[in-house]
Design a protein that fits this description.
The chain has 194 residues and is α+β, with helices and mostly antiparallel strands. The strands form two sheets. Strands 3-2-1-8-7-4 form a six-stranded antiparallel sheet. A two-stranded antiparallel ribbon has the order 5-6. α2 packs parallel to α5. It is globular and about 45 Å long. The two termini are 30 Å apart.
């Protein structure tokens, strides 16, 4: 990704065009790219299971972005209809009571799958859900859900909650790692088919 930005800058200067972004915005963009590249490089997975990969990924995201709770949904088929299937969770309070299958358009993850766009919610109603630990329970400050896409097809949706608010930099980070996660999912699907 960093190489892409360098080539983009070189092309713009070669053409004599004026780049509309300020130096500060370019530096921020480069920083987000560097962080997302480092994250993907440090999130090693050599196994053959999408379920195992989803656990590794959610755990790595929790460390990188202060995630307090998370869920990984994979696009699947149920009775001939496209659905999202719950694959794994991070710090889920009662995994046995999680809805295993969501229709496309159902809930936040289903809506993300339907629209193919990230949703960032910073005003979560108190009665929505609590993040639970051994020390107690508290309401999250923010919820973000993003699609994992390959060629505009949603392969998965990742939903994350945190005690801190997700900002535009976080949204950019998740959008940048999405294609890399999609690539890993496709590799694992191909391994399981062979």
């Amino acid at each position: 990704m960093i190489e892409f930005l360098k080539k983009k800058k070189a092309m713009n200067s070669d053409k004599g065009t004026i780049v509309s972004k300020s130096t500060r915005e370019e530096n921020l963009e480069e920083r987000i790219v560097a962080i997302s590249d480092a994250f993907i490089n440090n999130c090693h997975y050599d196994g053959n299971s999408i379920v195992s990969y989803s656990f590794v990924l959610l755990s790595a995201l929790s460390k990188e972005k202060e995630i307090s709770q998370g869920a990984f949904y994979i696009n699947s088929d149920h009775n001939g209809e496209p659905v999202l299937k719950f694959l794994s969770g991070y710090a889920t309070p009662d995994p046995d009571n999680i809805i295993d299958i969501l229709e496309i358009g159902e809930g936040i993850p289903g809506q993300v799958a339907k629209d193919g766009r990230l949703i960032n919610i910073s005003e979560i109603p108190d009665d929505c859900f609590k993040i639970t630990s051994g020390l107690g329970k508290a309401y999250p400050a923010s919820l973000i859900a993003f699609p994992v896409k390959s060629d505009d097809k949603v392969l998965a949706v990742i939903e994350l909650a945190s005690f801190r608010r997700f900002d535009d930099n976080d949204a950019a980070f998740f959008e940048m790692i999405s294609p890399m996660i999609a690539n890993q999912i496709l590799i694992l699907i191909n391994k399981s088919n062979n």
